[in-house]
Amino acid sequence: MADAERAFAEQSLTREQGRHPRMRLSQVQMRLGSRFFSVWWLLPGLLMLAVASVAAGKVFIATGAGQSLIHGHPCVPHTPRVSPGVQWWVVVTHVANFFFMVMIIRAGWQILADHPRLYAKVHCTPDREVLRFRGPVPKDRVWTAKDDAVTLSPLFGMPGGRHTIGVARHWHFIFDILFVVNGIAYVVLLFATGRYLKLVPTELSILPDAGSCIVQYSALHLPAAPGGYVRFDAIQQLSYFGVVFLLGPLAILSGLAMSPALDNRFQWYQRIFGNRQAARTLHFLIMCAFLLFYAVHMTMVAATGFADNLDSIALGSRGHDLNGVALLFVALGVTIAFNVWAVRFSWTHTRVLQRVSNATVGRLMDLLFDHYAPRAEYREQDISPFFWPNGLVPTSDEWTGLRDREFRDYRLRVHGLVEHPVELSLRQLRELAHQDQITMHNCIQGWSAIGRWSGVPFTKLIELVRPQPEARWVMFYSYGEGGEGGQYYDSHTVDDLRHPQSLLAYEMNGEPLPLLHGAPLRLRVENQLGFKHVKWIKEIEFVRHFSERGGGEGGYNEDHEFYGYRDEI
Ligand SMILES: Nc1nc2c(c(=O)[nH]1)N[C@H]1C(S)=C(S)[C@@H](COP(=O)(O)O)O[C@H]1N2
Ligand SMILES: [Mo]
């Protein structure tokens, strides 16, 4: 590797950029009707609920009906045990799963911090959030989605310390793949060895048995378990079944529902969850459910004989020694050490992390999503009342001069590896074609919005300029600057630009493109995330490969924020 190349590869995240106010747990609010309340008000409510259910449990268990329920339906069913002991693969997949989940959840929080608001409807209108992690959106100035991010402590966020969704996504997705592979291995072995019988309920009697458990637990009676807790009780079985066969798959599916490539190709997909934002909110709630599960799980393990339980979970033995506890502490220690290392690595070797992610996650995305040409159309009444803006409106004399003359002097320069370079005025572009589409924009930060875009299908431009055969990528350069200074730009494959919905847009919602949203011309490439839709386009260049231009990573955010070079999720 040449020295210059090495220096670039070693480029890392800096603290100066991307600092935002710290997230404060005291500011987390939920909406009820038209008002927002601190989520801390849930605590006394939950406490009252707990007290009430203990009281109800104690009263019910003393009644005849209660007695006949717990005697007629044992909490720990008498079904034959599958096979005694624990197998090594159960322990390995269990520990690996814990390790992966810690990374996924921490990186997930970091991703959420980039747009700390959750919605129920498809639109992301300020003051219509169902849950928000910072105050209301200021209304007295332009407030971009980038302005809205918050900083997490490195104790919570991966890597924390500033907003950096690029880095967080790399960790999140790399560990998602490991999580899925581990999950598949676990489920395959579960069925291959017949041990699924421990998890999958096969008889309806599990329901009254579970009822019996609920009554006994809420009355604070630990159900009788002769010989120790070697067999799952009905509630355990149902919750393990739920975590493995419902929560896990739902986490994956709701995560995929945030993909622009999927949503703008198969509209039915996000509808499974209601809409794209409901899927994002559900993705968050599933994380909460996982945490709740872990908390209850560990509490029960501790409450029913910590060391013995850990022994039988980890080693399948009840040696009345501390092997299981030792294993737990080793697993915890390795997880903590890895997390400390991963935070440091994020800061010192950011470019390496990005490259690894491009080569794994990026390749997989290309393979899975490449052939999905976006074509979903929304209806007039679906158009979002609010469209978050992003980026810095250009300030150069060149652009402000054009703006002051209403872009009459604007000329789009299209050049590079083409047979017929052109310079086109807005009038010429309008005469070239006028295509209308109502589509959903998905920002990498998590918000989305539906809008009507009108402009020239990019295929028209391709026909006009006739790219040379070796031209595989197209660079889009903006009049605007990125957050750290320097020209904003990005790149697309010619293949993506041939999609019927790839558009050079000169109108938004039936009006000439507003200054804030990219006047006079912006890009729409509906299978990709928002940051690839360059606004305030100055010129277009056909090249062999994006690495020949700019910082070499594919675009401004790829260079400065370490984003992936294609982002279809
Ligand atoms: N020139 C330029 N184009 C840009 C950006 C930018 O900062 N500069 N931000 C991108 C991002 S991150 C998004 S989500 C969309 C936002 O488009 P909107 O402001 O119309 O919502 O523009 C993209 N295009
Ligand atoms: Mo974005």
From TrEMBL:
<keyword id="KW-0812">Transmembrane</keyword>
<dbReference type="GO" id="GO:0022904">
    <property type="term" value="P:respiratory electron transport chain"/>
</dbReference>
<feature type="domain" description="Oxidoreductase molybdopterin-binding">
    <location>
        <begin position="407"/>
        <end position="545"/>
    </location>
</feature>
<dbReference type="InterPro" id="IPR000572">
    <property type="entry name" value="OxRdtase_Mopterin-bd_dom"/>
</dbReference>
<feature type="transmembrane region" description="Helical">
    <location>
        <begin position="326"/>
        <end position="347"/>
    </location>
</feature>
<keyword id="KW-0472">Membrane</keyword>
<dbReference type="GO" id="GO:0005886">
    <property type="term" value="C:plasma membrane"/>
</dbReference>
<protein>
    <submittedName>
        <fullName>Molybdopterin-dependent oxidoreductase</fullName>
    </submittedName>
</protein>
<feature type="transmembrane region" description="Helical">
    <location>
        <begin position="39"/>
        <end position="66"/>
    </location>
</feature>
<keyword id="KW-1003">Cell membrane</keyword>
<feature type="domain" description="Cytochrome b561 bacterial/Ni-hydrogenase">
    <location>
        <begin position="87"/>
        <end position="307"/>
    </location>
</feature>
<dbReference type="InterPro" id="IPR011577">
    <property type="entry name" value="Cyt_b561_bac/Ni-Hgenase"/>
</dbReference>
<feature type="transmembrane region" description="Helical">
    <location>
        <begin position="238"/>
        <end position="262"/>
    </location>
</feature>
<keyword id="KW-1133">Transmembrane helix</keyword>
<feature type="transmembrane region" description="Helical">
    <location>
        <begin position="282"/>
        <end position="306"/>
    </location>
</feature>
<dbReference type="Pfam" id="PF00174">
    <property type="entry name" value="Oxidored_molyb"/>
</dbReference>
<dbReference type="GO" id="GO:0009055">
    <property type="term" value="F:electron transfer activity"/>
</dbReference>
<dbReference type="InterPro" id="IPR016174">
    <property type="entry name" value="Di-haem_cyt_TM"/>
</dbReference>
<dbReference type="Pfam" id="PF01292">
    <property type="entry name" value="Ni_hydr_CYTB"/>
</dbReference>
<dbReference type="InterPro" id="IPR036374">
    <property type="entry name" value="OxRdtase_Mopterin-bd_sf"/>
</dbReference>
<feature type="transmembrane region" description="Helical">
    <location>
        <begin position="86"/>
        <end position="109"/>
    </location>
</feature>
<feature type="transmembrane region" description="Helical">
    <location>
        <begin position="171"/>
        <end position="192"/>
    </location>
</feature>
